[in-house]
Amino acid sequence: MQAEPVLLTGLIEACRATIAANSDHLCALDRAIGDGDHGTNMRRGCDAVSAEETQVSSMALPDALEQIGVTLVMSIGGAAGPLYGTLLMEMGRELRKPERNLDFSAALKQAIDAVARRGRSRVGDKTLLDVLYPVQDALANHSSFADIVHRAEFSASNTAAMRARRGRASYLGERSIGHVDPGASSCALLTMAICRYLEEHRPA
After folding, report:
1. CATH code of 47's domain
2. Distances (CA, A) of 134 to 25, 75, 191, 197
3. Fewest 10 Å CB contacts: which of 28, 77, 149, 204?
4. What is the extent of the structural domain holding 150?
5. What is the pTM assigned to this prediction?
6. How many domains does the chain have?
């Protein structure tokens, strides 16, 4: 399963540009219920991946995803690095299995489950899982890119009504209600970047 170099490079750049453009917004969300550095951390991680894009774009897709995951773990601070890193590393490992046969939806489900185990979290805990699982469900149901983006954005906004049960935000208890989770927001932004890039560059 060889990654298309131009496509993968474009996706990396789309994600980097989106996070860079929204870094201050993500930090503002994080200041309300966390350390205030989620945008800075995510930008550092995306920049680190971008610096390796020539290397990873020459790899088979499972290897590329696993390498990007390792880079994110090493470069993003806080809880986001291990969670995003686990997602991509597990995606790579799942897609390497012969039975997956390009079944991205099933591979994504297994990878998200690994993130849930890593963070000891579940849907409703006010984390990026509250975006990842709805996105995977939309993908499994062959939704359009536009519908997947809408699902991601809607799911991220819904975290405002949730009480945080994991991470630093959980220390706030009821005071965490009313604030969008920054990890869910960055996840929705990345989903948007990926879907819009694929929509624009899919074969005619």
Report:
1. 1.25.40.340
2. 23, 27, 11, 20
3. 204
4. 5-201
5. 0.93
6. 1
